[in-house]
Design goal:
The chain has 237 residues and is α/β, with parallel strands linked by helices. The protein has helices at 23-37, 54-64, 79-88, 110-113, 134-151, 167-171, 182-192, 217-235, and strands at residues 10-16, 41-48, 68-73, 95-98, 122-129, 163-166, 197-203. Strands 3-2-1-4-6-5-7 form a seven-stranded mixed beta sheet, sandwiched between helices.
Length: 237
Amino acid sequence: MNNSSDKPSIAVFFPVYKDEGTVEKVAMKALRVLSDIASQYKVIIVDDGSPDRSGEIADRLAARYPEVQSVHHDNNLGYGAALKTGFKYSLGYEWICFTDGDDQYDVNELYHLSKLFHHFDLIVTFRYSKIYGTLRTFMSFVYNFVIRWLFKSHLRDHNCGLKVIRSNVVKDMELISNSAFIGAEIVINAMVRGYPIGEAGIRTYPRTFGESSVTSVKNIVNSILDMLRVYKKIFKQ
């Protein structure tokens, strides 16, 4: 194991919305892995106006563990807005890992993702073991095909909900998406700015609590609108 002086400082953050059944599990996983691989670390939980006990649980964890910070939106502002808030509170650390609060992505993946830190400025994961139904798998295929065609990208999966990025790369971006398209927007911004991007395969796991809203009509429409806004911003200036 490396000396602590060789380890980077890392912040992990994740938004929560109707995730009261998994928020503590994700936070505790993050604390354990960070205690092994980081010199300094913080776990930031962004309560995006959740109507359940997610925010209350986040506050309880923050009171118990000094490395945990709980941040609240008064109203539900959307996944993209929650990520932008998470970045705001993470910029003091060398690396930022962001994931989802539903525990479908295992934070323990950071053990092998951290081995790539010396090679890339952004590490994008893709799901080599998918647990979704036929409809969502097809929608994901179409979504990624459109992004690859529209933005000239070669990456497999632009919206997989676990990524790791250097904080200085985030500081070089002006993110505009409030929808789930923000995951792709981050990748596209890093790509057009010439930052080295790596890919790593991960497993995903079934939700054990609640239901995903990513395929709702509202979220799909908002993602399409943000996709067009980002395209216009990058290529039509």
